[in-house]
Amino acid sequence: MSSLFPALDNAPAKPALHFGDQILDYPTLRSVALTLAGALRDQTRVAVWATPTPGTAVAVVAALLAGVPVVPLNPKSGARELAHVVGDSEPSLLLTPPGVAELPPALAGLPVLEVAVDVAADAAEPEGPAAVDPELPALVVYTSGTTGPPKGALLSRRAVAATLDALADAWGWTERDVVVHGLPLFHVHGLVLGVLGPLRRGGTVRHLGRFSPDGVRRALTSGGTVLFGVPTMYHRLAETVEEDRALADALAGARLLVSGSAPLPLPDHERLWQATGRRVVERYGMTETLMNTSVRADGPPATGTVGMALPGVEVRLVDDAGRPLDVGDGETVGEIQVRGPNLFSGYLNRPEATAEAFDAEGWFRTGDMATRDSTGGYRIVGRRSTDLIKSGGYKIGAGEIENVLLAHPGVAEAAVTAAPDPDLGERVVAWVVPRDPAAPPTLEELSDHVVGQLAAHKRPREVRFLAALPRNDLGKVLKRELV
Known about the structure:
The protein has 483 residues and is an alpha/beta fold. It has helices spanning 7-10, 26-40, 54-66, 79-89, 157-171, 188-201, 213-221, 231-241, 245-253, 266-276, 351-357, 398-406, 443-451, 479-482, and strands at residues 15-19, 22-25, 46-49, 70-73, 93-96, 112-114, 137-142, 152-156, 178-181, 204-207, 226-229, 256-259, 281-286, 290-294, 308-309, 314-318, 334-339, 364-372, 378-383, 388-391, 394-397, 411-421, 425-434, 462-465. It has a domain at 388-482: 2-Layer Sandwich (GMP Synthetase, Chain A, domain 3), CATH 3.30.300.30. The protein has 14 helices and 24 strands. It is globular. This is AMP-binding protein.
């Protein structure tokens, strides 16, 4: 039936989508998705109002069966961002779940079609889809727009299939897995990995609707085998698990715990390990590249790294001049560049930005900085633009300082940035949310704590206290707002 969803060919009598009280088995998903696909074949590009509902999953699957590219829309987008995405992508139709009361003005000019998630009693067997060129776009996913207006990354059907199959190899992902998560469905992590991934394998999506430790516990103790989350979610689990034995047992019983979208702080790794005996696996990807590396489920523990290159993906580090760094010392910092079938096809309507993103040999410049150890495992230092600090002739990664600060008993949250310094070039600045706002740790105390574990040139030279760190929908700290 579909190269992306082979399980829909035989449609086994098992759950495909499980959202709250709504469960769609494979025969139902096949019927409703094919029926909708028949109505979409004449569309050029469809937008999907990506709420965490089965209607979103059905809409995306149906469009992919019809060979129509999907633009997932974030329901929490601001008016300006939403208007930009819609104006840039020019969808011919908007798909929404049933019963959306009111849509933003930016969508006012679009025809709207509500997505049914049940099968009519008199429904005939819908027509199967035609073959679709794997190089055609499956999704247009917009970047976060930290350096300008968001850009639409064209993700081909080939790229989606390649990344999901590479992860299946790394994680031992099969049709027996029930993937539990509470991720938003407008980006790569929640939609591609969290919905299309289980459906490609013939497994089950168990979406929590809204993340909570109780929801995770219930889902994992009632058949869930794999948990996907972002660091803020795992932090909440780490804060809860030491006092909640039932949650600890549920996490211990999962086959695989996966964290992504940002580095998971080492203190949270260790707290979860101590409470459950399970290691959280990290992976690394981007909107433009889908997944590049991962710690393997069948490999040795690699806490603090995002693992090795996935099958079929080439990964390398380069210096400031773009020269490859053939080192595995775990210390030398370079920019990550990647090449492989997982890469996007370009930015929609942005040929110049597309050309700038690649070098002459087809390597994609990620802008992410990392080190590589002797096993080939990568440790992300951070973004070149916000997380690499050049101080006193040293290159310093913000991430390792943040991990040390988070281990201080007086620190609840921490972020590290650079500030101009007339002597050092840049100095290390710590942004700290204290556990006790009435008695925050001093700069001297935090500096001594860092020097006790890292080189002296990595110590904070300034500390600024906040009530909370600014974060996006994925829990990533918005460092540009700090700077």
